[in-house]
Design brief:
The chain is elongated. It has ten helices and 16 strands. Helix 5 packs antiparallel against helix 6. The chain has helices at 2-9, 33-41, 65-76, 110-113, 126-201, 206-225, 243-248, 266-276, 281-287, 325-328, and strands at residues 22-24, 30-32, 99-101, 106-108, 123-125, 256-262, 292-297, 305-313, 318-324, 340-348, 351-356, 361-363, 370-377, 382-387, 392-397, 406-413. The chain folds into two domains: 2-128, Herpes Virus-1 (2-Layer Sandwich), CATH 3.30.40; 243-413, SPRY domain (Jelly Rolls, Sandwich). The protein is of the alpha+beta class and 415 residues long. Keywords: Coiled coil, Metal-binding, Zinc, Zinc-finger. Residues 12-53 form the RING-type domain. It holds the Pfam family zf-C3HC4_4.
């Protein structure tokens, strides 16, 4: 009975084993430091003792040296826990290897320690060095945990700044649009007034018309010269710390299959019809007559996380993303098909614009130049596109339902 009571005093009530790096909290109960840290990590604040439930406001811990020494002695007093296998017996002296040589990093018996080749080396008890190593492991866990705890606040602050900047920019753009709308409304009123004035002038007597013609013409030209400046609704792209490094863990090599060079791609015709309307479709097609390289991946994905990159360079027309197998078999490849998750870059009168498919939505961010990264998380139902050069997010398909295999898809204009 006394032996059990003594053992309970040296045993952590959380893991039910001998203490590792024991700490004692305010109520007097002791625990392994890692056990207590894990218990209190998700506990409400202030945390409570796992045994007596007393509230504790303690934030730092110091190893209970007295308790650690007692545990060390208790381990040594129970040698049957560590059977003397062939590896623990010295083959030369047939003695137990109770000492650890810090030079050769191996266990030795007492006689080996006194031998000429080892006598100058530093030796420690195997039990004590093991206890020290357990403490080091615990300290190492604390250091690693501390570093990860630094990352979360860092990313949270970065996220907060990023969202605040987007909110600020969006308000500025909306303000510019409102001012542009007011300016165009004012110009419309001035033009209507000038139109009425010119119309009335046409019915005036010849002499009166000639007397006021030059002055009216100058005012008419002044009204027409006042041109409202266009508003660029593009939002800034900010780098996300660790984004590319995290995605690179899932990078796969994508081999392309079914490579085709063609001048007829329904995808671009659909998008131009969306952008320019049916009346201007023929003009848009004639102004961008070029050949396209079209291909999709030889492999298919039905689970897991996969990341690949495409170098788009200065190409003005390209499509990148994932599509299901049935869509690649279709001749029309229309935009309103299910199972396509694509990012478009299309040349227009103002430069290049980005769009996503299903449904067609404009993306008001800067066009990437260089590499575009594509990330698929099949289980989470997301497809994301990133600008590799500045480690920023272009756009994402969120909460998708993938019901079939997906293939990487690529289409780009040829020079």
């Amino acid at each position: 009975m006394a032996s059990n009571i003594f053992q309970n005093e040296l045993t952590c009530s959380v893991c039910m084993n001998y203490f590792i790096d024991p700490v004692t909290i305010g109520c007097g109960h002791s625990f392994c430091m890692p056990c207590l840290c894990v218990c209190w990590e998700q506990a409400p604040r202030p945390p409570r003792c796992p045994v007596c439930r007393e509230t504790s406001h303690q934030t730092t811990f110091k190893t209970n040296i007295v308790l650690k020494t007692r545990v060390f002695l208790a381990r040594r007093a129970r040698p049957y826990q560590f059977p003397r296998t062939a590896e623990q017996m010295c083959e030369i002296h047939l003695k137990t290897k109770n000492f650890f040589c810090e030079v050769i990093k191996d266990a030795l018996c007492l006689l080996c320690c006194k031998a000429e080749e080892h006598v100058a080396h530093r030796h420690c008890s195997v039990d004590w060095i093991a206890e020290e190593y357990r403490g080091y492991v615990t300290l190492r866990r604390k250091m690693i945990r501390a570093e990860y705890q630094k990352v979360c606040p860092l990313l949270y602050k970065e996220e907060k700044r990023h969202l605040e900047r987007i909110e600020k920019e969006s308000k500025e753009i909306l303000q510019q649009l409102k001012q542009s709308e007011d300016s165009m409304d004012l110009k419309g009123k001035l033009l209507r007034g000038m139109y009425e004035e010119l119309k009335d002038m046409c019915h005036k007597p010849d002499m009166e018309l000639l007397q006021h013609f030059e002055n009216t013409l100058k005012r008419s030209e002044s009204v027409q010269l006042h041109v409202t400046q266009p508003v660029d609704p593009q939002l800034s792209s900010w780098p996300i710390t660790g984004l590319i490094g995290r995605l690179n863990r899932f990078q796969v090599y994508v081999s392309l299959d079914n490579e085709v060079v063609t001048g007829h791609i329904p995808l671009f015709e659909d998008l131009k019809r969306f952008l320019f309307g049916t009346d201007h479709l023929e003009v848009a097609n004639n102004s961008a007559r070029s050949k396209y390289f079209l291909a999709w991946g030889a492999q298919s994905f039905t689970s897991g996380q996969h990341y690949w990159e495409v170098y788009v360079g200065d190409c003005s027309n390209w499509v990148i993303g994932f599509c299901n197998d049935s869509w690649t078999m279709r001749n029309d490849m229309v935009l309103d098909s299910e199972g396509i998750f694509l990012l478009f870059c299309v040349k227009d009168d103002n430069g290049c614009s980005l769009f996503t498919s299903s449904p067609v939505l404009p993306q008001y961010v800067e066009r990437p130049v260089g590499c575009v990264g594509v990330f698929l998380d099949y289980e989470c139902g997301t497809v994301s596109f990133v600008n590799v050069a500045d480690s920023s997010l272009i756009c994402s398909f969120l909460s998708c339902s993938f019901s079939s295999l997906l293939k990487p898809f690529l289409c780009c204009g040829l020079p």
